[in-house]
Amino acid sequence: MSKLWHIPVIALIALLCACSQKYSAPPGPTEEPVQKDSLVFIQGGTFVSTQTSYTGEAVSLPDFYIGKYEVTQQEWMEVMGSNPSLFKGSRLPVEMVSWYDAVEYCNKRSTHEGLEPYYKIDTQTPDPANKSGSDTLKWTVTVKAEADGYRLPTEAEWEYAASGGQLSRSYIYSGSSNADEVAWYWRNAGDRYLSGDWLWPVIEQNNNRTKTGASKNPNELGLYDMSGNVREWCWDWYSEADAGGGTYRIVKGGGWIGDVSNNAVSFRGKFEPAGYGPDQGFRVVRNARSETQ
């Protein structure tokens, strides 16, 4: 479904959309290959972190599993048969994928592994909840809540996991209040560390790009790259007012193009569901009542 856009245009869109206490002995970056099907159990409960969008709200989540890493290009190719990514590498996160691509991947991976697909995807009926004037797809996607297949996280699940769940130390970013310890973003994702203002020509000349998963420190739950590297699609429409629909889907975590502020656990990014870019990926979730592979 995806095709290559001219990268300066993508960078500008990414920037515009973006504007829309240390625990002892943390695990260090791993040099081991990223393992397929690696999911982490997340114990449910109410939010502990003071650095999320849900701070002070009585939001409680059930247990669930979430990907330890962002979906890699190898995982994508094994299910989808091709690789849309601009920056090629089996251990790099897949990018240049839309929200529609992501939900389609979830269903196909579920079927491939003998699980019940979580989504019902109707490509013929325009979604009446989709208010976008430029989305030509507008697939109607509904959920089968009892299915054991793969799905996208809700925004609340994403923030809960990124903030460390019940082990949270209330870091600003996922795993640290120092972004450089846990996140790849525009200043550190190239040949040298950049200073000054965000300028695309400088970023391009610095060869900024995505990085191999798990090459920064994990968070309290052992999850990697929930801040930086690629922005991650969530299930939800962008704002509370759009709970039943809207123009944008939520993206979380920031990416290698974006500013450090985008890497904050609480930052709420937005992107049209048919949109895609070289800093746009995702990770998967499964309901905890099913067995992981």
Care to describe what's here?
This protein is α+β, with helices and mostly antiparallel strands and 293 residues long. It has a single domain, classed as Alpha-Beta Complex (paralog of FGE (formylglycine-generating enzyme)), CATH 3.90.1580. The strands form 4 sheets. It has a 4-stranded mixed beta sheet with strand order 9-8-7-10. It is globular and about 45 Å long.
Keywords summarizing the entry:
globular; alpha+beta; four-stranded mixed sheet; about 20% helix; 6 helices; about 290 residues; paralog of FGE (formylglycine-generating enzyme); disordered N terminus
Beta-strand proportion: 5-15%
> How is the biggest beta sheet arranged?
4 strands, mixed
Q: Mean pLDDT score, rounded? A: 88
- The strand line-up of the biggest sheet is 9-8-7-10
Poorly predicted parts: 1-36
Helix/strand order, N-terminal first:
HEEEEHHEEHHHEEEEE
Broad CATH class = Alpha Beta
Question: Rg from C-alpha positions?
Answer: 18 Å
CATH topology: paralog of FGE (formylglycine-generating enzyme)
CATH superfamily: paralog of FGE (formylglycine-generating enzyme)
Number of strands: 11
Distance from N terminus to C terminus (CA atoms, Å) equals 28 Å
CATH architecture term: Alpha-Beta Complex
Helical content class: 10-25%
Total domains: 1
- Principal-axes shape call: globular
Structural class determined from secondary elements: alpha+beta
Helix segment tally: 6
